[in-house]
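Example record

The entry below shows one chain as it appears in the dataset: sequence first, then structure tokens.
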Amino acid sequence: MEKYLQHMRIKIAAEADQIVQAVSESQNKRYPIMRKLIHVLDPGRTKMVLMFADTLIMEESERVEVLKEWGKNTGTKLANYDIISLDMMLREMPKYRNTLGAVLRHEAIELNLSASEMYNLITVLDQLLNDALYFFSMPFVQHEQERLKLSQILISELSVPIVSINDQTAILPLVGTVDHDRSLILHERVLHNASEMHLENLIIDLSGLQTTDTFVAQQLFYLFDGLSLLGIQPIVSGISPAIAQTLVQLGLSFGRIKSFATLKQALAYIEK
């Protein structure tokens, strides 16, 4: 088996340029945008095919380490190119499986290998390509997770905007729902920004709030208390009949906090 693997290694290495050319043409046809990185991708493809050839004759443990290191470095490099997606690269791997498999099949016929010997060769190739695909994909997945996390942070920050009215007063419009993650940002961002703005009054407008339950009310009370400790007067506007009814049903009351049905009424109160 070892001598056959060595033979396949030599043949694959000899045909590396033709294999890369076939894969490159196919991918560029499917994804024309990849032509912009052909100077990066094609040398990387050639290096990868030669690596596949070399790892054919390695012991499994050594082969896994080589593929792991290659996948980490190459995957990380390509993941940082915004025009390259994991989908594009996943579409590419079957082409190597087909072209390399064709080389093995042709050479197996030339060497008059048995079905069992051919099966063993294909098994090694399949395992090699499966490991390569796994280790190559991981940096893409991590990159996407980091981008998603950053996007969520940015969206969360935008979800608690403080709009300044004048030097003493600002408005915090709450739109949508208030969940656990948003409540944490609500407390941290609002208290920090309100303090830095040296506000005297902060109007919390609830007219865009979708739901009001015990959790939401509790988070609002925490925010009111935090603002009060900072010497900032919290004022609530946008109390709709539905919100008022919910608060009554929950047995909750804003108590000492000034509350108004509309933002216009809240602003009029401050002007007085």
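Notes for this example: The chain has a mean pLDDT of 87. The beta strands are 163-164, 169-176, 201-209, 233-237, 258-259.
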